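Lecture notes, part 5. Sequence design as translation. It can be helpful to think of inverse folding as translation between two languages: the language of shapes and the language of residues. The source text, in structure tokens, appears below.
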């Protein structure tokens, strides 16, 4: 399910959070699909359950998962649209595009990449 990179500068909970978010956004985790329990994931990844709990709590605060007491955590359905989140992601995308241009990627190459990703998510 998830793999951790101990050489990554991001904290472990951040890697878990990013990995689960990616799985939800790409459809690898379907809406309402049950996530592993905190304890099960901690055992699977050989890390402290508090680390998993922190990742789950942040994902829930961001609307990517929801928890039903006594039943577990589940992937959330796609939100209708969060203007603040869209603005944040648009800003990050602009920064990435600027960096790609700095590395001499052409507008055509960037557009091709965006079209390729769009085709994967249709």
């Amino acid at each position: 399910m998830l793999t951790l990179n101990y050489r990554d500068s991001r904290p472990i909970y951040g890697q878990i959070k990013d990995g689960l978010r990616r799985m939800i956004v790409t459809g690898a985790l379907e809406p309402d699909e049950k996530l592993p329990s905190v304890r099960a994931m901690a055992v699977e990844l050989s890390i402290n359950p508090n680390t998993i709990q922190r990742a789950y709590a942040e994902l829930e605060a961001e609307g990517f998962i929801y928890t039903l007491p006594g039943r577990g955590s589940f992937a959330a359905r796609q939100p209708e649209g969060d203007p603040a989140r869209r603005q944040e992601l648009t800003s990050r995308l602009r920064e990435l595009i600027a960096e790609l241009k700095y590395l001499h990627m052409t507008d055509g190459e960037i557009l091709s990449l965006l079209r390729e990703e769009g085709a994967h998510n249709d």
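The translated text above is only one of many valid answers, since several sequences can fold into similar shapes. Helices lie at 12-26, 38-45, 49-61, 83-102, 107-120.
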